Amino acid sequence: MDYQTIRLERDSEYVARLTLARPEIQNALSLDVVRELLHAIAAIGADKKLRAVVLSGEGKSFCAGGDLTWMQTVLSQSREQRIADSLPLADLFYEFDRLPKVVIGRINGPATGGGFGMTCICDVAIAASTARFSLTEARLGLVPANIGPYVARKIGLARSRRYGLTTQFIDAAQAERIGLVDRVVAPEDLDRAVDEELDLVLSLPASSIAATKQLFNDVHGRPPRECMDYTANALADAWETPEAAEGIAAFLGKRAANWKVAR
After folding, report:
1. Which residue among 58, 164, 175, 196 is least packed, with the fewest CB closer than 10 Å?
2. Is the pLDDT of residue 220 over 80?
3. pTM of the prediction?
4. Separation between Cα atoms, residue 218 and residue 74, nearest integer Å
5. How open is the CA angle 56-18-140, to the nearest 5 degrees?
């Protein structure tokens, strides 16, 4: 697919870079952007060699949420069309969340509305100290609907209410304190910090990354006793993989496992 609003690049055999590429409007999301992102996510998910994808924005912003031009067209739509146009956005966050790769957010600047939600679906989020965050939907008389499940899971119900009901901006340091992002670094150190996380990821087998991410998604919010059969089977499945045999052998032999690669 010839992308017009995003860039998908191969950083190495094991790492992809996915960049929102509309800097002139702060990488805002439109239906075209959503469709291109869904296509890119499917391609990333199908690539068995890839272990991680770095998500970022071009220019000074990470993502400013919904494209206001797109939003204006929604005002004249029927209810059925509004729902139909909303579903791809819901699919986008769901597919990002279930992607069997490590999603590393390179939060290079402001992340508002849907950009706040994009931050929440990253497995690891590293923010520049200049980044700012806000759930801005209520300022437009709207609600953070499609991103709501991921926001509430990431920062908790109480904080989701606080920031969704006040729409206040928070800086990167506060975002780190509430668990929205994992690390905050100076803008000039952002790429180095991303590389450090990638080094950790590339020391792990792709199969364990995918299975671990799925396991956490599947057990989240369920009582532990309800998960016992599921987790027992998940562990039995893992023991039966070549990766488990190699991992144990490498540990006992005091050597690096054969899946560890360099960028």
Report:
1. 196
2. yes
3. 0.95
4. 34
5. 55
Question: What is the C-alpha to C-alpha distance for residues 127 and 186, in angstroms, rounded to an integer?
Answer: 8
Q: Say if residues 109 and 59 touch (Cβ distance below 8 Å).
A: yes
Q: What is the reported pLDDT for 260?
A: 83
Strand ranges (E), the chain: 6-10, 15-20, 52-57, 102-107, 111-112, 124-128, 132-134, 170-171, 183-185
Secondary structure class of 170 (helix, strand, coil): strand
CA angle 46, 149, 121 (to 5 degrees): 40
Distance set, CA 124 to CA 62, 154, 252 (Å): 15, 11, 30
Q: In whole angstroms, what is the distance from residue 210 CA to residue 162 CA?
A: 33
Domain map (residue ranges) of the chain: 6-201, 206-252
Per residue in 103-130, pLDDT (tens digit) is: 999 999 999 999 999 999 999 999 999 9
Q: How far apart are CA 263 and CA 257, in angstroms?
A: 16
